[in-house]
Amino acid sequence: MNVLLDVVDVTVNFGGVNALQGVSFQVRDGELLSLIGPNGAGKTTMLKAITGVVNPQNAKIRLDGRDISRMPTHRRAQLGLALTHQIVRPFRSMTLLDNVTLAAGHQRIRSVFRSMVAVNRDPEHQKAAVLLQLVGIDDHAGQTVTGQPLGVLKRLEVARALALKPRLLLLDEPLAGLNHIEAERLADTLVQINARGLTVVMIEHNLGEVLRISQRLVVLDNGRKIADGIPDQVMRMDEVRAAYVGKEKQHAAS
Amino acid sequence: MLIYELSLATVVCINIIQAIGLNLITGYCGQISLGHAAFYGIGAYTTALMAKAGFPGPVNLMAAMLLSGSVGAVVGLTSLRVREDFLAITTMGVGFLFLGIVRQQERFLGGELGISSIPSFGLGKPGFFGLTLILVILTAAFSLYLKKTWMGFAFEAVADDEDTARVLSVNVSAYKLVAFALGTAMAGLAGGLYCYFARFIVPDDFGFITSISVLSMVAVGGIGSVYGVILGTVLLTLMPDFFRFISDYKLFVYGALLFAVMRFAPEGLAGLPALVSAKVARTGGAP
Ligand SMILES: Nc1ncnc2c1ncn2[C@@H]1O[C@H](COP(=O)(O)OP(=O)(O)OP(=O)(O)O)[C@@H](O)[C@H]1O
Ligand SMILES: [Mg+2]
């Protein structure tokens, strides 16, 4: 399979904190890969470095062979990267439907000048409605963001990212805040979308769902990659167990 | 209409154009500007100089828009680099820079004495009022139209959360620049009209008080709402005329008003019905 995303030697420092230290990995076209690791491992920072939300000290990032390391975030999005936020970032002045509609209109707003003469939003409204239904929050379509439960806003993030029609979907803990049934349903939806050809990278702490749907795992710990491979093998590795168990001990102690 | 009322109505129209321009930048696109009067001034001085050089009125008004809009786009560049609070200071700085230049430049811009004996637009007072009225309607219509376009939608996203807008492929920088260019071009048009209205301009017409006044008009009416802004501008323009004492304390009164609106009714007059009904609902009063 072709490499869709090639991430080479990503290093990110926040002041004194080394969030990522020379991490490399590849995402193959069509796969569903999960990025896992304990809290503070650098997972979110990795997705933000890929999308250009965070500026790495060092990184070479190629999408479909094209070097995107120096491109601004909106260009990377135009080239097919879509990111959902771990801490939800809906547009609070808009309804849920409009949040998704804006993203569905990515072609309309690409050229600033053409956006000035484009008025019709009907096709995008329809696309947005379909996506809200796909993630199971169509009941909330016309409502404003304020007061929505986390589970709804998490799925709104996913619907909005899908509306960009991305080549690569980057999900940061999409199942957090969802109850057991909602999480399973969204995970199934992700599998279906992936089966239709969309490549997915997912950060997720819900290991049950991760192991159920992922084709490959990349494990980060303390800003370094400690494992990369098929789920069964990765989960049997001592280092991976140690990283998780070690953190659990820390949690238990604190 | 009497001469006095006609003048007042013309001033209201000019202020509305200026306020709608600022509303585009601040209301639609979420970028604060405390130096809007500088662009109003650029429009007025451009028009004054060109009129005195013998160019026809319509050409001068166009030039005023073009020059103000271009300088506005350049100032907009700073909005790409700095965060909101700093943008307030930068735009305020631009306002003072403009004042400094026109005050110092005596040879061409008249220094403190400004520019006088500006030729008339040539329509007579009622005719000129008709022109400003048409231009107000056009500006408001354009602004309302813009809100409905995808550009308006993208502005909303930028105003709401620009980082998220970027992730959703919005070229935030480009949209901000366009908002600045359009909004300041409108200020330039208003300045050009003011120049023909007064036919005598001095630096103080375009000072910090003017910038704050326009901002108050936008905020009192309701940031983002065109109708609200028109209402706010009419009220605030007429107020000093009905209550003479206000003109002496304009900065104080407008400043206090601005603070009160931001603190108690951030959506201004346009948001008042919703605010009142929410209050009633919360206190359990009759619906
Ligand atoms: N903006 C920031 N400024 C300073 N430090 C940061 C910033 N963002 C992240 N960090 C630090 O970088 C490290 C990696 O954070 P990151 O959010 O990438 O971890 P994560 O793997 O996503 O963790 P979690 O599972 O808790 O979401 C942490 O130590 C974190 O405190
Ligand atoms: Mg994270």
The major beta sheet of chain B can be summarized as: none
Q: Which structural class should the secondary elements of chain A be placed in?
A: alpha/beta
Structure annotation, total helices of chain A: 10
Count of the domains of chain B: 1
Helix content of chain B: over 70%
Most extensive interface: A-B, 34 and 25 residues
User: Order of helices and strands of chain B, N to C?
Assistant: HHHHHHHHHHHHH
- What is the chain-wise order of helices and strands of chain A? EEEHEEHEHHHHEHEHEEHH
| Oligomeric state | heterodimer
Q: Determine the number of helices of chain B (DSSP H or I, runs of at least 4 residues).
A: 13
Task: Describe the fold and architecture.
- The complex is a heterodimer of chains A (254) and B (287).
- Chain A is α/β, with parallel strands linked by helices and 254 residues long.
- Chain A has 2 domains: 1-80 and 167-254, P-loop containing nucleotide triphosphate hydrolases (Rossmann fold, 3-Layer(aba) Sandwich), CATH 3.40.50.300; 90-165, no CATH class.
- Helix content of chain A is 39%, strand content 24%.
- Chain A has helices spanning 43-51, 73-78, 96-104, 112-115, 122-134, 150-163, 180-195, 207-213, 231-236, 238-253, and strands at 3-14, 17-28, 32-36, 58-63, 66-67, 81-83, 168-172, 199-203, 216-221, 224-229.
- Chain A has a 6-stranded mixed β-sheet with strand order 6-7-8-3-9-10, with helices on both faces.
- In chain A, helix 7 (180-195) links the parallel strand 7 and strand 8 (199-203).
- The longest helix of chain A has 16 residues, at 180-195.
- Chain B has 287 residues and is mainly α.
- Chain B has a single domain (3-203), classed as ABC transporter involved in vitamin B12 uptake, BtuC.
- Chain B has helices at residues 3-28, 36-52, 57-81, 84-104, 124-148, 150-160, 162-167, 172-198, 208-221, 226-242, 244-248, 250-264, 272-283.
- In chain B, helix 1 (3-28) packs across helix 9 and helix 3 (57-81) runs antiparallel to helix 8 (172-198).
- Chain B is globular and about 50 Å long.
- The A-B interface holds A 51, 53, 72-74, 77-78, 82-83, 85, 89-94, 98, 101-103, 105-106, 108-110, 112, 115-119, 121, 160, 164 and B 146, 148-151, 153-154, 156-157, 159-161, 163-172, 174-175, 178.
- Adenosine-5'-triphosphate binds next to strand 2 and helix 1 of chain A.
